[in-house]
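Example A, followed by Example B.
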Amino acid sequence: GKVCVSGKCEDPCGNGTCDTAKGENCSTCAKDCTCQTGQVCQGGQCQSTCGNGICEATQKENCSTCAKDCACKSGKACVQGKCSCKPNCTGKTCGDDGCGGTCGTPCKGRTTCVKGQCVCSHACKQGEANCIDSKTAERCELDSNGCRVMRKTSCFGSSTCKNGSCCSSACVGVCGPDGCGGSCGTCPARAKCKVGKCVCQNECSKVGVTKCDSTTKFKECVKDASGCLYWSTTRSCNPGTQCKNNQCCKPLCSGRECGSDGCGGSCGKCSSSCVGNLCRRTVITVSAYLPCGLCDDKPALWGADPDPYVKLTLKNGRNYKSKTKDNTCNKTITFNWTINNLDPNQLKGAKLELFDEDPLNADDRCVSWTADLSIPGKKTLTNTSKKNAKITIVVKK
């Protein structure tokens, strides 16, 4: 059971070498197989004591070396292996840290610590200003800590204290500020102050000008005592009139088809042009019925019926002639003859005639009709004294 060491037979346990091959361990040979600090020998093996749930001071366990077994209680912190009070300064700039110390720096001036913050105890209200005397003003201002305090100011030269400020009153004109918190004067209700002068804010451009407020009511541009222009209260137009184009008037469109209505408006539009408040007319001679024997024909000589054409004569004497139709009577003759751009006033009392064209003698007038041809529409004129001869026309505007 012994070994030879330097010529001597000695016990192998204690030679300073943990010979595991010979069964040495921390249990069989603690001399050679010593466990490290913080470990114990269990079943021949060195095992750590940290984590076994027991804070063992003999094994040098503390909150620093073995936080698992030696954790500090709530509210305390581990400082150099010992559980001590844990300061709390979260969100604080002043006040107690919970461990007898302080957070941040002490509050200065007019500030006091309230719930971990330095809060001002203001001495005055923002904007507050006073005159101590004619040459001394005091105003609420911020000190170096941001707290409001009253500070005195001396007025120099010709300036005096007014409304808490040192100023020199200087009015330029009749209105506006005087430079000392006062006023040089106020303007009338319809005027504004511009560079010391009251300038009218006119609502309208000229006295007497009117504008419609509805179809029957209007307002008039009038002047107030200060010379400013404004719209009067609403007035009613005279009976029988209405407000149109900013004036009260009586529209006159009776018997009118176009042109002015007398109120700045129109009585209508024409497809052509307007003359005397009426649209120019187009007259179409559609057809005519010419009985035989009405014309001074010479059938025995010429052996033919009349060669009819239509003639239109206006009130002023101007006339128009259609094309001639060959040898026909006792039947309806189709002309479809169109005359455009006729003055409707000249068509009142106009004359339509059927002539027989005679190449050798003067043309014979067979039958005539006199009528008002200014009225639009289709009409048939009959001459009862001429065997009921007829002519059909269409009038368009």
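Example B, a separate protein, is given below in the same form.
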Amino acid sequence: MSDRPIQLMLVDEDPVFRLGLKVWLEQQGDFTVVSEAGTAADAPAEVRSRSARPHPTLAHPAPRTPAGPPP
């Protein structure tokens, strides 16, 4: 099994419930909540918006520009 926590998206219309569940899950150590949505209809748009921006732990360094010919 991986040392990285399982990444979850919480979907529930009650923000207080989502917060409580998020806190509890993250205290377990095996989970991290990376996204939330208020309804199942909102969830796909949230997934699309997350996939459009790089995740900070998965981002790769920018490629280096090759050096020019030696002088």
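On Example B: The radius of gyration is 18 Å.
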